[in-house]
Write a structure and sequence with these properties.
The protein has 17 helices and 14 strands. By secondary structure, the chain is of the alpha/beta class. It folds into 3 domains: 136 residues, no CATH class; 51 residues, no CATH class; 228 residues, P-loop containing nucleotide triphosphate hydrolases (Rossmann fold), CATH 3.40.50. The strands form 4 sheets. It has a 6-stranded mixed β-sheet, sandwiched between helices. Helix 5 crosses helix 6 and helix 5 crosses helix 7.
Length: 512
């Protein structure tokens, strides 16, 4: 009977079948490409990027991962799993080294040591998990599998035969006699350690540490022709042991248990993400396991922030500003306006990041959150003018918007940032109202960052949010974005007044 499916990432085998092979189109706009690059750095052999790019579609699948993250709040458990991962890296290193060696018997010894380390890693992990108070379905399934696997005949035979061969090889003794260019290898029963006797004799004359004149040879695991020749002669002296080693390697070519190999890779998803957010938590920034739903359109997050920006700011010792947002009842679209460089785009990115991270089953930035499981996430960020485009920037924007609307459904998310900013205010209002109307008609959720404040009051589906400035100084940004009606303040005029650049001031100063 095949072993039951056991995974720490997926609640069913079907869910594990189709990972995304490349990053979604929205990753760059939302800075998720930076997040994924930082999470996977140093863990390239595990190929974690597909896991980080593939959203889950069911709430129970998300809860499954929340449970594992909760268990991994235990630092002793994390240390045990990290120890297992180090040993498994050692196994792979030994296998890689064996593949680079040319002498067959030397390869076989490296393969033996790799399997010995594998057996020790599996037994140690099984024992560690057995004494932990686990609650997650994923880790409980792995614990049960390891308990069954380590008690199986296949594993116990492998472990016993591995130890027996290691002991047999360690018991081999031989002597080498050198006469000119001729080497003779022979068995020896026992021989006095003259080096130890000499050291003991001269110990009484030791006054201080002496200079070490011994030659240190390069640490090269390969053998030269002389060493290979000696090993071949030793194998002729102990044919039974070396024949057993060769047969062992042939029998146990496929020794790695599929579930153990899957766990070794999958658990790195959790360890890597926890490592990524650890500096943010240490800086006092909150993370939570959000409530998720594929049906409800009510979403909120409190004290949330852009994780990519926060990592950079925390690294620089700067302050991270948190914000809140909420959509409830008939509300569907956050329309964000206010002065430039005030945090509007950051909030839009945060909205998209939160939903993607939540769809992965990861803790999200914020004190508390409720989010939706989307079918598709679209972004439309304004681009710099491309003079090589014959149709112009506005035409390019409209084509991109059309493509989004053609694919979007009621379960989609859309993040629009400074869209349609390449045209006049009147045209931007007319086009924006038409596009926003299409989004509302599809009953999708989204964010629209815009300089056209009138879009915030199109109806009950839109919610106005405004980036605020410091009281009494319109040039000082707070990076807070709050829910309130657009105030229509002319921030550009306020800045011009502060620096004496209004039309009246310039005219008076330039008058003859």
């Amino acid at each position: 009977m095949p072993a039951p499916f056991a995974s720490v990432l997926f609640d069913t085998a079907a869910a594990a079948a189709a990972p995304v092979e490349r990053a979604p189109a929205h990753f760059e706009d939302l800075c998720l490409d930076q997040v994924v690059a930082a999470i996977t750095r140093g863990r390239e052999p595990y190929d974690l990027a597909p896991f980080l790019a593939t959203p889950l579609r069911a709430a129970d699948a998300v809860t499954f991962r929340h449970e594992v993250f909760s268990d991994l709040e235990d630092p002793d458990l994390v240390e045990s799993i990290q120890g297992f991962a180090r040993q498994m890296r050692g196994v792979r290193d030994r296998l890689a080294q064996a593949g680079q060696l040319h002498h067959q018997r030397q390869q076989q010894r490296w393969l033996l040591d790799a399997r010995a380390l594998y057996c020790d890693a599996v037994r140690t992990l099984a024992a560690d998990l057995a004494r932990r108070q686990l609650r997650s379905r994923g880790l409980l399934a792995i614990r049960e599998h390891l308990s069954t696997y380590t008690a199986s005949a296949d594993f116990t035979d492998l472990a016993a035969e591995t130890v027996g061969l290691q002991q047999a090889l360690a018991a081999i003794t031989y002597g080498v006699t050198i006469r000119g260019a001729r080497l003779t290898v022979s068995r020896i029963a026992s021989e006095a350690d003259y080096g130890a006797e000499i050291e003991a004799t001269f110990e009484r004359f030791r006054q201080r540490a002496a200079k070490d004149y011994r030659v240190r040879f390069p640490d090269d695991p390969g053998m030269d022709h002389v060493e290979a020749g000696i090993l071949n002669l030793v194998a002729r002296l102990y044919p039974d042991t070396f024949t057993a080693l060769a047969q062992y390697c042939r029998r146990h070519q496929e020794y790695l248990d599929d579930t153990v190999g899957r766990f070794d890779r999958e658990v790195q998803f959790y360890l890597a993400y926890l490592e990524y957010i650890a500096p943010l938590r240490q800086a006092g920034l909150p993370f939570c396991s959000p409530r998720v739903s594929a049906r409800s359109k009510e979403v909120f997050a409190t004290e949330t922030f852009d994780v990519a920006l926060a990592r950079r700011l925390v690294g620089e010792g700067a302050t991270v500003v948190c914000n809140d947002f909420a959509l409830s009842g008939p509300e569907r679209i956050l329309v964000v306006s206010g002065p430039n460089q005030g945090g509007k785009t950051t909030l839009a990115r945060t909205f998209g990041q939160l939903h993607h991270l939540a769809s992965l089953g990861c803790p999200v930035p914020g004190r508390a959150a409720q989010l939706v499981l989307f079918d598709q996430l679209f972004t439309h960020f304004g681009r710099a003018a491309d003079h090589s485009t014959p149709d112009g920037t506005l035409q390019d924007e409209l084509v991109r918007v059309r493509d989004i609307l053609a694919q979007a459904t009621s379960r989609s998310l859309v993040v629009m940032n400074e869209s349609l900013a390449s045209t006049t205010l009147g045209d931007a209002l007319a086009l924006g109202a038409a596009v926003l109307g299409q989004m509302i008609e599809r009953d999708l959720l989204g964010v629209w960052v815009t300089f056209v404040e009138e879009l915030a009051s199109l109806g009950p589906a839109t919610v106005s949010m405004v980036s605020v400035v410091a009281p009494g100084d319109a040039t000082a940004r707070t990076y807070r974005v709050v829910r309130r009606p657009a105030d229509g303040l002319a921030y550009a005029l306020a800045i011009a007044k502060k620096y004496g650049l209004t039309y009246e001031r310039l005219r008076s100063r330039l008058a003859p």
